[in-house]
Write a structure and sequence with these properties.
The structure is a homodimer.
Chain A lengths: L2 H8 L3 H9 L7 E2 L5 E2 L2 H15 L4 H12 L5 H35 L9 H8 L9 H8 L1
Antiparallel strand pairs in A: 1-2
Helix pairs in contact in A: 1-3
Chain A binds a DNA duplex through helix 2 and helix 7.
Chain lengths: 146, 146
DNA sequence: GATAGACCTTCCCGTCATGGGAGGGTCAAG
DNA sequence: CTTGACCCTCCCATGACGGGAAGGTCTATC
């Protein structure tokens, strides 16, 4: 199987497969005489694993750890769970931050007439510079909103 | 006021202020004889506006639009509201995606013993490659998880 | 007036996971 | 033997910054 076939079989783009090789996430596939990458079922399964993990929002670094635990038949499930729980906490924190933004925006939007007149509570809020409640620091908060 | 004083007054780092100049978000401040940027109250207010908008998760592009409406005293509040509502929809969509991830993870985590044994429903799920419900396409879904 | 150190300037690189595309080699079918 | 669909590597871009180098400026103290 060359990279195109591996891509179809795994649902991961060729660009991403090459990137995963580059960062050492998956072992380099063997190469044909003409320097084409070659894949077998094992690689395909790893690519599917990565894809699924990405769809759950794990970072590449976390996936590196998960993959290595996956390959280790004697791993303690404790370690897997720890990674999952850490990520879950991360997700919940970000959800809460974004929910706070959404709540504020929802409120402002409801207060805004949305007509031809210039008066606008949304702009008024942005002007007044009401500080968000300072839980984790605003810059972090903003960064994570991305 | 030079850039350091503007930074303290607005709560925006000097790096960010220079970046906002670079992308044309705020009008270039005047320059002193020694090429130092100079700021007045107007600039400070704009920086505070940007900071507050960022804390609500608006992108730079949206803030560009919001700033131009803010400067226009005859803007219709309809336009401001449209931007806010679009962003709100965006936020809600991303929250829903992340919540779906969190729900799945929460379930898997609860099913995982988290002990010394290697059996792990989390890894099993990643292996089986259960596809996420295909609403908006998985790649978009994954990208947004960042 | 000299020197220190706290500022300012521009410029370039790195982030993270990925897409786009150039420039060139390879393979299979017609 | 050509065509077009692949493959290769390498570089650039994304968004919203942070870090840091190399060099100019200001201010306070000696």
């Amino acid at each position: 199987m060359n990279i195109g076939q591996a891509s179809k079989a795994s649902g991961v783009t060729t660009k991403m497969i090459r990137y995963y090789h580059e960062i050492g996430l998956v072992q380099p596939a063997s190469r044909s005489d003409s320097n084409y990458r070659e894949y077998d079922e094992r690689q395909i399964n790893e690519l599917r694993f990565i894809k699924r993990a990405r769809s759950l929002g794990f970072s590449m670094e976390e996936i590196t750890q998960l993959l290595s635990l996956w390959r280790d038949r004697s791993r303690p499930s404790r370690e897997v769970k720890a990674i999952a729980d850490r990520h879950l906490a991360h997700l919940n924190a970000r959800i809460a931050e974004m929910q706070a933004m959404a709540d504020t925006l929802q409120h402002l939007s409801l207060c805004c007439a949305g007509d031809e007149r210039p008066d606008c509570p949304i702009l008024a809020d942005l002007t007044s510079g009401t500080e968000p409640t300072e839980r984790a620091g605003r810059q972090t908060l903003v960064q994570r909103a991305r």
